[in-house]
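Give me the fold.
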Amino acid sequence: MTPPDRSLPDTWFRRDLPVLRAVARLVDGPEHGGNPYLGQVVPASGLAKPDVLAAARALADAGYVEVLTTYSGEIVRFTGVSPEARRLTGLWPTPQGEWERLLEQLAARAEHAPTDVERQRWRAFADAAAAVGPDDGALLLSALIGGYVPRAR
């Protein structure tokens, strides 16, 4: 038991996130018509049913998943996931993730360029992107993902 003056143990990484990933995968897939039953989420998550139930309640309370319940409030089916859940599970891009992918792509192009001139150009582009840094890079990618690109003045 956790002493009253201590933080509770983490449930996000060991319980809630694996269940959210399983739900998102099943809701997004055509196999279950986008509405998987709790009994389908349990094996997909790799966790025991009591853990899946606890995670499902926490995820529903936080607005990450939409559920159907019985009259007594028991979760029986998942009917949707929030946009934030799609980003957290990787179904939709995040600015940080896309920035990392851009840096990887630039490095690969620099490494595999067919000529020295192209290699130098890609390397300069990669170096410039790295110099921008992850914070400003994520802001740029956020604008691109969201469809907003500032116009030149």
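The first strand starts at residue 65 and ends at 69.
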